Amino acid sequence: MRRPKTAAASALGAALVLAALALTPLLVRGGWAQASRGEVRDPLGKELNGLMQRLAAYGFSGSVLVARHGRVLIDMGYGMADLEHHVPYAADTIFDVASISKQFTAAAILKLEMTGKLHVEDPLSKYFPNAPEDKAGITLHQLLTHTSGLKDTFGP
Length: 156
Hints:
The protein has 156 residues and is α+β, with helices and mostly antiparallel strands.
């Protein structure tokens, strides 16, 4: 996974993920915003919860959020987030999503380009005037195609 090094690039990454979430049809119409974390609703949510509990017994660890027609059916954590310290996963456990968001981010950027709100050839400096000089010329296209020259990973 490529992680942004600068604060501006981090903010752009966060904005891209948020834009991707805004395009995800399962989360529209306000259903998610009103839901509490760590809940199971609806008979289908209960059925999914039972399945996830069985999978957790076989070693699955993670968080699951399923919504249908804007209504959250299940928002729960399963298994262990940290085996060494015996910390269980919760609905609000923070974890690295790795490459799973790439296609949603790309779709969000292309949708924004189609509506004329940005262009993939725009440099970061257009949106982040204080971007470091060596990063200011990186384009959104380069970020999307992993040709920006940013390191693959940062930090532990």
